[in-house]
Structure formats: structure tokens, C-alpha cells
Amino acid sequence: ETVTQQRTVLLDIPARLQWENGHGYCGETAIQSFGLYYGAWISQKLVRDINKGEYLLQKLSVDDYRDSTHTLTVLHFTYNEWNWENSVQPQFDDFCRWIKRSIIQGYPAMFAAYLLYLQDENYDHIMPA
């Protein structure tokens, strides 16, 4: 018989107020929260300036000049990116295990979600896990 151990892990990531804007600041707010978790205050505007625009989790086209992983590198974050392009479909179970492993190890994680009242084809909102 297999025994499954359950435990709750809650990282000390402070809640943040996201700036009002027609497009975003949710990614910038998530990064700001992770910075605070590690003891560094990072302006949402600084994140957007480094990224050369709205912080998204992936490029929207081949000529999209924004680069989310470059932005994390410039801000001195160490990160592990989910391999969404090469993961077996459906990805839900593997993705949730990947995020869970990160959190159990004490690393913050962010993810994107669709919201009922928004209609973006890629995703609607970025938030810390």
C-alpha cells in the first residue's frame, strides 16, 4: 500500500498591489513579489523598462522584442522555465508537479491563467503560485 504524505508549504511572498493599466503589470507585480521574498525591492516600472514593454511569459511572435528570461537574468534571478513547447499534452498534471516541486524546495513560481471575463488567446493573467 502506498502512503501519500500531504503537507502545506506557504512561501513568505507578500501580497502586492498591481498598478492599474489596460495591459498588465501582473507579470511585473509577480516579479516584484519575488524580489521582496529574497529581500530586494524592484519597481514594476524597472521590470517593464528592462523588458522593453509589458512583462509576458513568452514572446507573442518571432519579432517580439520583449524577452522575459533576459529580464530575469538582468535582475539577477535564477530561474527554471517550464518547457511548454515540448511537453506532452495535456500538460496540466506535469505542470502542477513541476510548480509543486519548486515551491516545496522554497522557490517562488509564477503561472498564467485564463479568466472568465477576459478573452486573450494566450492567457489573461500572470500570478505567483
What's the topology here?
Elements: H1 26-37, H2 44-51, H3 68-74, H4 92-104, E1 110-113, E2 125-128
Antiparallel strand pairs: 1-2
Helix pairs in contact: 1-2
What does this structure look like?
The chain is mainly alpha-helical and 129 residues long. The protein has one domain. Helix content is 31%, strand content 6%. The chain has 4 helices and 2 strands; from the N terminus they run H-H-H-H-E-E. 16% of the residues are buried.
State the domain count: 1
Shape: globular
DSSP helix count?
A: 4
Q: Which residues sit in consecutive blocks of at least 5 with pLDDT less than 50?
A: none
| Neighbour order of strands in the largest sheet | 1-2
The chain-level mean pLDDT equals 87
Order of helices and strands: HHHHEE
- C-alpha termini separation: 31 Å
**How many DSSP-defined strands?**
2
- What is the C-alpha radius of gyration, as a whole number of Å? 16 Å
Short description:
This protein has 129 residues and is mainly alpha-helical. Helix content is 31%, strand content 6%. It has a two-stranded antiparallel sheet.
What descriptors fit this protein?
129 residues; mainly alpha; two-stranded antiparallel ribbon; 4 helices; globular
